[in-house]
Amino acid sequence: MVFIWAFLIGGLICLIGQLIMDIFKKTPGQTLSILVVMGAILAGFELYEPLIDFAGAGATVPITSFGNSLVHGAMQEAEKSGIIGVATGMFEVTSSGISSAIVFGMIGALIFKPKG
């Protein structure tokens, strides 16, 4: 049942993104930003963690989870370091994911040749 909920919740998040692009005529970049902000807002109201507990990967894989990570890291570090922790916490929590995306993207670019 966990897999079904993950599929449905992840699909719902993707459906929302597709509707934003189709109905409101937003570009993919604008849609991406909207979904990140939606994840951040849900995290700010402490609604995203219960969604992760319920849907698992269906809530952690979509881009909304990035917004959740930003807010979660900022709030965690703000408790320890005050206002400076807000900025450093966002970078601390998300840096490993961003760094690995850059490294693996570079490796992929070196290994594979584009078809032209």
What does this entry look like structurally?
Helix 1 packs across helix 2 and helix 5 crosses helix 6. The model has no long low-confidence stretch (mean pLDDT 92). By secondary structure, the chain is mainly alpha-helical. The protein is built from six helices and no strands.
Please tag this protein with its features.
116 residues; mainly alpha; 6 helices; Stage V sporulation protein AE; transmembrane; transmembrane helix; membrane
Radius of gyration: 16 Å
Q: Could you list the spans in which at least 5 consecutive residues all have pLDDT below 50?
A: none
Number of helices: 6
Instruction: Give the rounded overall mean pLDDT.
Output: 92
The major pleated sheet works out as: none
Strand content: under 5%
**What oligomeric state is this?**
single chain
| Terminal-residue CA separation | 43 Å
Protein name: Stage V sporulation protein AE
Pfam families: SpoVAC_SpoVAEB
Transmembrane segments: 6-24, 83-112
InterPro entries: Spore_V_AE, SpoVA
Task: Please outline what is shown here.
The protein contains six helices and no strands. The chain is an all-alpha fold and 116 residues long. InterPro entries: Spore_V_AE (IPR014204), SpoVA (IPR005562).
What's the helix and strand layout?
Elements: H1 2-23, H2 28-44, H3 48-55, H4 57-60, H5 64-81, H6 83-111
Helix pairs in contact: 1-2, 2-5, 5-6
Keywords: Membrane, Transmembrane, Transmembrane helix
Protein name: Stage V sporulation protein AE
InterPro entries: Spore_V_AE, SpoVA
